[in-house]
Amino acid sequence: MARTPTGAAVLQPEVTQAITDAVLQELAEQGYGRLSMEAVAKRAGVGKSALYRRWRSKQEMVDAVVTEFSVSRAAEADTGSLRGDLRETMHALIGWLTHPMFSRILPDLVAESARNPEWSRTAREYIGATRREAGEVMLRRAIARGELPGDLDLEMALDALAAPIYWRLVVRQAPPGPDYVDRLVAYALRALGAQDA
């Protein structure tokens, strides 16, 4: 069993979780611009050194926390049918966008993307790309099963699947309603040219 070298920092998972929770709470209450390392450390009940052992800057800390939160909520649905996969994926997307804390954080981070090229790059490359990769795997499986046409424009399809949910929940701030996912899945299947439309 390997021993931790003397003097090496040991990152305790419970401390990391307390810090992660504090970052999300501060983002929800203060927004990115007013968030400070000092406030996060105080809320988490740790010294600032605990933050700097994990991340070099506020930007790196927020990048890591928001990316982990967002990517961990991306569905990797494999129900055996496109209809089932779409249903699970859309429910997961709605759950992410309506999460009580994240729904307060997201509008501020979207605005921050316009001001902060570094955050915009992180959101695009680490959150967006990772979530889109999961969606592409789902669509490629459906093509392999013969449910979707082989010449499907994957980029356009991925945009078309996520955009209505984002528009409804984030831009319009309208509730999804009890049958919204089923209606949207049926609409998406027709739009994608699915055999099961």
Overview of the molecule:
This protein folds into two domains: 13-56, Homeodomain-like (Arc Repressor Mutant, subunit A, Orthogonal Bundle), CATH 1.10.10; 73-191, Tetracycline Repressor, domain 2, CATH 1.10.357.10. It is elongated. The protein has helices at residues 13-34, 37-44, 48-52, 58-71, 82-97, 102-115, 117-144, 154-171, 180-191. 70% of the residues lie in helices and 0% in strands. With 197 residues, the protein is an all-alpha fold. Residues 13-73 form the HTH tetR-type domain. This is DNA-binding transcriptional regulator, AcrR family.
Reported for the largest beta sheet, the result is: none
Number of helices: 9
CATH class of the largest domain: Mainly Alpha
The CATH topology of the largest domain corresponds to Tetracycline Repressor, domain 2
Descriptors for this entry?
197 residues; mainly alpha; Arc Repressor Mutant, subunit A; Tetracycline Repressor, domain 2; 2 domains; 9 helices
Summary of the model, kept short:
The chain has helices at 13-34, 37-44, 48-52, 58-71, 82-97, 102-115, 117-144, 154-171, 180-191.
What is the topology?
Layout: H1 13-34, H2 37-44, H3 48-52, H4 58-71, H5 82-97, H6 102-115, H7 117-144, H8 154-171, H9 180-191
Helix pairs in contact: 1-2, 1-4, 1-6, 4-7, 5-7, 5-8, 5-9, 6-7
GO molecular function: DNA-binding transcription factor activity; transcription cis-regulatory region binding
DNA-binding region: 36-55
InterPro entries: Homeodomain-like_sf, HTH-type_TetR-like_transc_reg, HTH_TetR, Tet_transcr_reg_TetR-rel_C_sf, TetR_C
